[in-house]
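Render Cadherin domain-containing protein in 3D.
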Amino acid sequence: MSSDMEGITGSILLLCLIGFANANTSPSINTRVEEVCEDTPIGAYAFTIEATDAENDPLTYSLHEPNAQYFTVERSTGRVSVSRKLDREACDDCNILPLGVSVSDGPNFVDSELTIILKDANDNRPIFQRSSYDIEIPENTIVGTSLFRAVATDADTSNAGIVRYSIDEVTPNDGFSLFSIVPTTGEVRLNGRLNFTGLSTFYRLKINATDGGGKCHFTETTNYFSSVVFSFVTVVDVPDLDPIFIGIPYVGRVEENSPKGTSVFKVTAIDPDTGINDAMIYSIENSTVNGLFEISTNDGVITVSSNIDRELIGDTVSLTVKATESKQNIHGDSASTEANVQINIIDINDIKPEFYKCGLSCVKESHFTGEVVEHSLGSVSFNMTVRDLDKTSKTQLTLEGEDKDVFSVEPPFTISDSIVQLLVKQPQKLDFEIKQQMILQVIAIDDKNPTFHSTATVTINIKDANDNSPKFQQDTYKLEVAEHSPVGTILANITAEDPDTMDQGNITYKLLPESILLYFDVEPQTGTIYVKNTTLLDREVRSLYSATLQARDTDDKPGTTVLEITVTDINDRAPVINRDYYQEFVKEGGELELKIEATDADDSDTENSKIVFGIEPSTYSDNFTIDPNTGVLRNKGELDREALDPKLKGRIELNVTATDKGSPPLSTMVTVIIIVEDINDNTPQFKAPEYKFSVKEGELGAFVGFVQAEDLDQTAEFNRISFRIIDGSFGSFIIRTFAEEPGYRGNITVDPDIELDYESARNKFHLQVEATDLEQKMAVVWVDVDVLDVNDERPEFKPTAPVTVKENTTISEAVGHFTAQDKDGNHSLVYELESIKCRCNGSLTPCSWFILDPTGDVRVNPEQTIDYEQCDQVLIEAQVVDEYTEKGENNSVTTGQMVINIADINDNAPEFIFSDSVFVVVSESASKGTSVAAVTATDRDSGLNRQIDFKVTAVQFKDTNNQITDMKMLFDAVTTQQKDIYVGIIQTSETLDTSLKGKYLVTVTAKDTGDISTSTVLEIFAVDDSYKVELEFTRSQAFVEENLNDIIRALMTATKAAVEIAAIRSDTPEASRASGKTIIVAYFVYSNGTALTSNEVERMISDPQHSLVLIELGLADIGKAPVIEPETDPLRYILLGMVAGLVVVLAILTTSLMCTRRNYRRKLKAAKAMNSASMVTSDNQKSGPVVPGTNKYTMEGANPVLNLNIDTTMVLDMDEESSDVDKVSLDSLDDSQYMTMPENDRSMQMIQEEDEEYDNRLPAYIEPLGAALAQRGQKKGSDNAPMGFNNPAFNTTDL
């Protein structure tokens, strides 16, 4: 019966297998859109074609048009790699590539077209639209003005296509602050004020455009690209400065009455805007006296425009002159400036003396009236003033008229305003009974020019006197007496007559006034007049005495007569000159006429008072003559100031004598000072016809030589000389004027700001030097200046081309040579070593691989070995010295540099870079192409010699029992490069076994192009599915995916472990997924390779600090979330139902037949399960035996593999509400594992129980269900030995 049953069962299974074969469905392609970085290297992984087959048949992948040429696919895995360079910017729509793919499961073939979106990588640099941005801007451009916009475009997108602008440098450097650029737009703006005259006239801007950077395939490094463009900004001068006058203050002079058009003075103004240099328009804006002067609008020459009368306008006239630019300035105005000019008016003798009557003010008058008592002496006043308006004048006064002899005029000469009076000279003619009125003419004559004279009429009214007195026969008696006559000498006997006869003989006499009695007296009765005092009678003191001889009659009526007593002379007085000295001014070339006046107190009618004039011999006495009678002093010939001794300053002193003719003759001497005034009648004269000097180059402010000139005029007003260089200097020389005796010296020096250079085009100068006096009389001389060569030029290095030297070389010849030049003709160059630096690991350090000869040759140091791997470049800095330098530094300004590139030879094997990283692979999530580890290596060689290729050469697995098993090539290596480091990315080449516990030992070999290789072994810890944790969320799958980053971040914060998401799936039907539950399958792995169990994760996230955050994100439970089976067609469900039914029938039959035989075996198994459960411990699990047939322990501890919340008392018979997932989970117990994780040993262990050894025959399965499952897992044609696993804690016997 048993054999029949087994035959029936086999037939039924055979029919099921035939049904499955006939119902094979076509594979489906799940991938529709993939993103690939455009910089993905050729051969690098791009993506994997996701396809599924309902029967899990092996799939074959292939590519076809369009665009199949850009990719290759591994036929068995669907792993797609790049086969041709991708370029997103190659065309307008190259960012999206359609790609034809095909998938086949053998009988069925499916075509599809994928959409490949090329992700942008920053592989384009910004490009400026213009090669340069050159502009001209006025110097008055407003700060903040936009000058131009530099525009650059970048073909990349996102941040890589965003261009930011900056100004890297500005030449000259001090103009850096004058400009700014808007980083986002490239708009260049003026940031400071320009100045054509004070700052530079041009600037060069270096503008940089840099993109925002980006990365795609190579995520470690962000690439940035930039470009530069130059802009030349030329500053244009604008008229913004007012003109200025030069040579101020201005002082001129002109003679009064100068003809119209006479040049007086020249003013000069310049335009400080050197780039404009506008012409000036001159004008007179104001004058203290209007209309006297005018100015040339073009050259600023001031000339006389009308008659100048010093006596009316005064000694000076002040002008305000204005210089106006001929063109308008930037403000639309005509810029101008003003200066003051003082013009001194030189007086000439052009005014005649005039008479004035003065009261509160003086007015001209020609008629005057006075009165005098008859016969009286003294002065007659009539309010007359004489005045000459010339600055220096001398006026002579004389009388004319019928009665001119009666009076004398006082003063006879005057040099200033004087009051004029008449002195009674002949009082006897003042007789009222004879004449009651006298008319005189007073004449004022200009002493320098007699033609200038004025006449005034003076009427003198004579007043009557009471004369009822005795009458003398004469009204006046003139008496003479010799001076110093003895006392008692009788002068005369004078008697009066009185008509009255009774008075005759009775008349008494008396002399009046009382003062006369000191000198004379009269006998009262006789009328005899006699000398009373001999001493006081001095003619030189007083030559004429007027006395009244009074006669009184008996009635006491007086009668008088006038006694004019003349004291006659004796020669006792020397002539007297009326001045202490004479001083006369005369311009050279003019005529001198000076009257020397002298008086002799002796009688004028005698020889005693007659004076003869003469000149005492002296240095210049022969140049003058004097009239001996009149005393008029004149010059013989033309007066020349320059003929005089300059020390005299034009002063001539003569001693003039006045000698009388008395006996013995007496004389007097007076000094006559003649000032010969200088006039500008000489032109400056250079003391040499030409000058020749030499000066050494390079000396700032060096003295070149001097020129000498002299103006023979003797006053500084006319002989002062100023020098200037009017041509040939080219701004290299300056001249300064110094006074010396005699003349002036002009020192020529090099401009302190200019350095002459013999090596330049100008080493000879032909200067034209002008000497000018103050009235612009000038002389010109030529000055030749030769620039002498001085060894003052510093040597300069010529550029030295890079040199290449192979490492390990031993050549003795020169490998390079420094070359320098010196502009000086005579030089000797010696080369000196400054430094040798080797570039080692990117930084320069001192080294001594090379030596430098004094000749400039560079040689290999025989004592050193050149190693490219130690240093790849050598920088030699040398200094060159000119041994013949005379002035300045003898070395070059900058050092010469020689770059020696060390050429590599392949003499080094690749070297792995040590890493303490721990590599972990989650077996369940590691699909084909998953990167699980990485190695880095470098090769100390360069170029092709340093290129490294990685390859996995062996794979082993070391389990928790330290048993090492050789594996097939589960991994392969993909080589990439990051700068100078090569990276080998270790990827899975196929799906890993999720049940393995332990670590993979992967041998990776690095080989360079010279077949020199090095190997290393990587340890990759495997995290098996026993550490899988399923998290249940009450939110939709869309919400979970949208907030996945926040969920992962919260889980990592709670567990301090890396979270690996294996799957996200919905736990609700399709129609209600928008608001249903979602399951996240995850692993929690530490960097040291250990992982957390679900129990540990549950404990950690239960902390209130973290659980609230996760609950807000929708976390509901942790455990094995139910799996929703995908929908299939009804035929599949029918076939599966038939198979399930057959399996149940088979299990029941087998159980019934074997019940008695297996009873003992069941008890034995239960005992072994209890024993095993009691032996298993965990850090987070309580001890206690397991309940056979369940996945729960009898205590509260949780199974480390599953965390289903099943009560310990639940029965194994699944109720109606149990899901298929629970059944599947129970099925999986056929491969259950035990795990312990002690603190000191974190390696994972697996306990595997083998019932029987495999000896090339089917195992003798103890349980029928185990045998059926073993047959189900076996595929046709498989050579793999069948394996069975027993769960010691649960078996189907308990069913």
